[in-house]
Amino acid sequence: MIRRVVFNQKGGVGKSSIAVNLAAVSAQQGLKTLLIDLDVQGNASQYVMGAHAARPGTEVFFQNQLNLYAREPLATLIHETHFAGLSIMPSGPGLLELEHKLESRYKMYKLREALDTLLGQFDRIYLDTPPALNFFSRSALIAADDVLVPFDCDRFAVHALHQLTMNFDEIRADHNPSLRLAAVIPNQVPARASLPRTLIASLVADGYPVTETLLPPSVVMRESHELSKPLVFSHPNHRLTHAFQALHAELERGMRG
User: Which residues of 65-95 are buried (b: 16+ CB within 10 A; e: fewer)?
Assistant: First the structure.
């Protein structure tokens, strides 16, 4: 069971879209896949579940960690989606109210402990995180094997990536020594723009694991959101879908390498 967290402290980089679409490709290719939404906005949950997104999930899981006596089994918080092989533990708005209590009671390891109990039930777990280094993103980083960082190819993104790397190294040193920065994923890269490729080349020169697959911009992503259908199901023959399939294959090769 491989656990991949999609994380960037910079907002608006396509984090939820990448997490959902990689999870969907994983499921479509026969891997039993769980998507965990840890963002209070619940974008990943709405993307996959649409009107059915308001179900017990991560909000109840973390609420349970504050209750010594009445805890719902983790299995009741994981829901099958309409897509074969893809399950989800959705987010809820109450996550924000829980954060301070969870931090003060040192509950950051509880997610990792819970995911350890799922060994054998899922092949891949993708964790979508809030755009901040807070309790929930730290919990995900402590629970994960690999970190996938969406990169939106501007100068501010380079600075954010350097800051993220320092925070990532600190979490690895203090909490999760097996955590690795598996991929920096260039997102919404225009076909003919020179600046993104200059920035990507500089990251490669600095030793960052930038993927060969570049995700292009496309209006079908928004259409996919509106349909509550990941691209591999809503637009199976589109070039952006093919890019996600190539990205998934690249990540799988990197895992074996």
Answer: beeeeeeeebeebbbebebebbbbbbbbeeb
Whole-number Å distance between alpha carbons of 61 and 118: 14
The span from the CA of 99 to the CA of 213, in Å, is 36
2-251: CATH topology:
Rossmann fold (3.40.50)
Spans of all domains in the chain: 2-251
Q: What is residue 25's predicted lDDT score, i.e. its pLDDT?
A: 98
pTM higher than the cut 0.90: yes
Structure tokens given for 127: 């964790």
pLDDT tens digits, one per residue of 177-198: 999 999 999 998 988 778 888 9
CB atoms inside a 10 Å sphere around CB 101: 14
Phi, psi dihedral angles at 85 (to 5 degrees): 85, -5
Instruction: Give the C-alpha separation, 244 to 232, whole Å.
Output: 8
Contact predicate 236/229, CB 8 Å: no
Residue whose C-alpha is closest to residue 7's, from 152, 126, 149: 149
Beta bridge partners of 149: 184
Crossing angle for the helix pair 194-205 and 155-174, nearest 10 degrees? 30
Report d(CA 102, CA 198) in Å as an integer: 42
Percent of the chain's residues with pLDDT above 90: 74
